[in-house]
Amino acid sequence: MSLTAQARKTASELIDFIDASPSPWHAVASAGERLLARGFTRLKEGERWQLAAGGRYFTVRGGASLIAFVLGSQPLAEAGFRIVGAHTDSPGLRLKPRAAHASDGLMRLGVEVYGGPILATFTDRDLSLAGRVVMRTATGQNSRLLRFEQPLLRLPNLAIHMNREVNEQGLKLNKQKELPLILGQSGAGEDAEARLRKLLADAAQGEAADLLSWDLAVYDVQKGCLWGADEEFIADSQLDNLASCHAAITALMATEQPTAICVAALFDHEEVGSESAAGAGGSFVADVLARIGLQAGLDGEDRRRALARSFFISADMAHAYQPNFPAAYEPEHKVLVNSGPVIKTNASQRYATDAETAARFTGLCEKAGVPCQQYTHRGDLGCGSTIGPIVATRLGIASVDVGSPMWAMHSARESAGALDHGYMIAALAAAFGS
Length: 434
Prior knowledge:
By secondary structure, this protein is of the alpha/beta class. The protein folds into 2 domains: 5-90 and 237-432, Aminopeptidase (3-Layer(aba) Sandwich); 92-220, Aminopeptidase i, Domain 2, CATH 2.30.250.10. It has 11 helices and 20 strands. The chain has helices at 5-19, 24-37, 76-79, 166-169, 192-203, 239-253, 284-295, 300-308, 355-368, 388-395, 418-432; strands at residues 41-43, 56-61, 65-70, 81-87, 92-103, 106-114, 127-137, 140-147, 181-185, 211-220, 225-227, 233-236, 261-267, 311-315, 318-319, 342-344, 373-375, 398-403, 405-407, 414-417. Strand 5 and strand 6 form a beta hairpin. Helix 9 (355-368) packs across helix 11 (418-432).
């Protein structure tokens, strides 16, 4: 399989976006930069909004959630909203508030497990820190993005001579005792916490005494790449779910003069349940839609009419068939990479899809000229969930769960098909144009 120049360009743009976004806060900053460059205006939640006809806007909550929208040409009560939702966070390791400790001549950092990562994949990799720190300034506190480009941390594996059953039993790591990451060597009597605070403050171009707090994620510094005999696959961290974030934003930026109001909503905290002020379980999307409705002069009746005419697409990555492990998959629902967007269905509503919304998304794929697949989980395996059922419940609008197929979901290094990202962008663009 050979990639067209356009498919290669689209896949490379995704890799660039992910590599610029080692944390949810960086992902929102990266998305915001792209939106500003395409003529979007940033709105602040704490200020009054003045929306112009045909305007293009975005707003941010909590630093790691973003909602962007393009106003449509038709009355909102008649056309409704076209919404694509995704999430900015990925499973991994997060630095504890008092992380540094020294023993046996080594300085280590304590971490908490965030979400459900495949912990073994974080061993023996070039790891570093990225996120945000909050600094004291003369005018108050200031939040700053922070990223160490160089390998800073490591989680060395135990030699097989001391873990003879690792290949038969798998690598099992105690989350409290066996996950602290090695930062460096420590001298006798050295204050590990002071050393860490100085390291972070220097990177933030401030003083250690002014460092108040941090939200820092551990990330793999290896950049993404195309791989395979014809470079038909993508390898990178955080494909779940930055690929969907990039697809949503790219499709929205390409949308010109839509009839309905088009919205791309990127939420934090999906991997830990979405129940937060900035998560899909919070009020963020409902608040933004309500403010748009107020600007449009809708009363209570027309707000409900608008929601009844709306459509929500929850875009989150899907499990591609891996032929080395056939027993893990539903035999009649083998999803293949480079074969198009996947409609995800679960009878217990772990996904928000129903027959009508599945048919509607299938029609969008047909309109976009891209293939489409269907997925359901094995009946004897627990099924994950997405923001789909959460947002559908909060808003009460027709919803579908979809995603691009990928391998090794929640690994430190995930893989997907290079063609599928362009397919998903085309399908979402068709949704915004519907």
